[in-house]
Amino acid sequence: MKVLKSPRVKDRASSSDLYGVSHEVRRIIDWVVLHGDRAVLEGSRLHDRSSRDSILVPVEELQRAHRSMDPELLEAVRYAASNVETFAQRQKGALMPLEESEVRDGVYLGHRVVPVDSCGIYIPGGSYPLISTAVMLAVPARVAGVGRICACTPVRRGTNSPDPSVLGTLYELGVTEVYAAGGAYAVAAMAHGTESIPPVDVIVGPGNKYVTEAKRQCFGKVGIDFVAGPSEVLIIAQEGDPDFIAWDLLAQAEHDPDAKGVLVTTSPALARQVMDRVETILGEIVTSPVARSSWEDHGEVLAAEGMDEAVEFSNRMAPEHLELMVQDPDRWIPRLRNYGALFIGEHSAEVFGDYASGSNHTLPTAGASRYTGGLWVGTFLKVLTSQRVTREGARELARVSALLAQAEGLMAHRGAALARSRKG
Is the pLDDT of residue 17 over 60? Predict the structure, then answer.
């Protein structure tokens, strides 16, 4: 693999170093556990300069925000939500209950698919109102059948209210339990509960390193989707429009100075065209300061000797987003094992997945796609197994279970098994 552009920052933080804020987050969590709403409000005053006196966002505030939304924006939200809902419904249909069936004489096994009772969705504030994140989190939870969906999102810095477009979107999606809470404070509140926020069963959603570390520390008390780092895209291209590729790389770069865009191509000529186009675009977009920092510090352009080398690199990197602009993609897709979401062909822009195509944009980063996929309707569902054993079935199970229990030295286990055979 020939390096045509290397990152300026060689050592990206590992997941253990990424946080570097574990003690501070632990302190925040303990403060929220001890002081509840007051701690969350103090966090909002400290970090967002808010003077709000309640973390609950009243339904009337949600309704006002909904009424104030630009009609075209509201229609876009409905379009995106419809696609996300359609795909989530189809995914749910693939995870079916299993009726009891006989696996041995007199031994019947089955499972039910049941939603969690409650979930918390976190919608970051920061530099941009992440309207799309509200859609990506709330819709699959609703399709799964979660009875209670609560949302936390911080106030806009220097104001007393979260972004109205986010509030209006949540109301459009039927989420009316909304709290003006941000960062690790919000995660701690949803995990442990406060006077206003009853604790939830699962917390999902992206966020900065404080949010991510808080989710990691609260895991076990609650379920989480996964621990995520900065956003990333890998583009494998044998061919393609250099303009498309350049825009897609910078669409990731403008997320965050730590975001990562990588191009692996079998065409050095295409690589040079893309790098030239990137520089041109950086001179035109208002997000250039963040995008340039990301591109210069973490962007890479690599020339592969062939597709075999490109595929091997992709499987090692395990990217969040993987774009495939190659001849005969169906030949290579079966060999690609590790990615959060795959975008096939030059017209399958990663940003379509961010917003409107219907697949979820909450995806594993930092190599986590080696062991998990992205958020989906199944994130909010539990598979609950059951067994039903007849008197006849218990005889054989008792013999085998007693032998195994005795070998493990667990004599009450052995006795519980044999009791069924003696009274059979």
Answer: no
Assign 229 a pLDDT band (cuts: 50, 70, 90): confident
Residues of the chain with CATH 3.40.50.1980: 15-92+115-224, 230-373
pLDDT value of position 329: 97
Nearest to 233 by CA among 253, 203, 206, 205: 253
Annotated binding residue at 321? yes
- Please give the single-letter amino acid code of residue 385: T
User: What pLDDT shows up at residue 11?
Assistant: 55
Does position 421 have pLDDT exceeding 70, yes or no?
yes
Q: Tokens 């005795």 — which residue?
A: 406
State the pLDDT at residue 20.
Answer: 81
CATH number of the domain located at residue range(s) 230-373 in this protein: 3.40.50.1980
Residues designated as active site? 320-321
Asked whether residue 23 is marked as a ligand-binding residue, the answer is no
In whole angstroms, give the CA distance from residue 105 to residue 83: 46
273 among annotated binding-site residues: no
15-92+115-224, CATH topology level:
Rossmann fold (3.40.50)
Q: How far is CA 370 from CA 12, 203, 247, 317, 367, in A?
A: 18, 22, 27, 9, 6
Residue 5: per-residue pLDDT: 87
In SS3 terms, the chain reads as CEEEECCCCCCCCCHHHHHCCHHHHHHHHHHHHHHCHHHHHHHHHHHHCCCCCCCEECHHHHHHHHHHCCHHHHHHHHHHHHHHHHHHHHHHHHCCCEEEEEEECCEEEEEEEEECCEEEEECCCCCCCCHHHHHHHHHHHHHHCCCEEEEEECCCCCCCCCCHHHHHHHHHCCCCEEEECCHHHHHHHHHHCCCCCCCCCEEECCCCHHHHHHHHHHECCEEECCCCCCCEEEEEECCCCHHHHHHHHHHHHCCCCCCEEEEEECCHHHHHHHHHHHHHHHCCCCCHHHHHHHHHHHCEEEECCCHHHHHHHHHHHCCCEEEEECCCHHHHHHHCCCCCEEEECCCCCHHHHHHCCCCCCCCCCCCHHHCCCCCCHHHHEEEEEEEEECHHHHHHHHHHHHHHHHHHCCHHHHHHHHHHHHCC
Mean pLDDT in the chain?
95
